[in-house]
């Protein structure tokens, strides 16, 4: 299955979440880019974040971020993302 623009938007938003603390999240403001607002809502509908505008990662969200960041490290040849 090829990556769609919507999936890429979701992955770009996911990798912005901090992984070092369960007490930190993100908020996608209403005046953010429309694709990021839509991506946050889709991530919420998929059960990966706690709020329609971001919030905190769920357990599944943490797993998704770990995988997304690992993929970025492999593809970009960086040590840490």
From TrEMBL:
InterPro entries: CHP02647 (IPR013468). It comes from the Bacteria. Pfam families: DUF5669 (PF18918). NCBIfam families: DNA. This is TIGR02647 family protein.
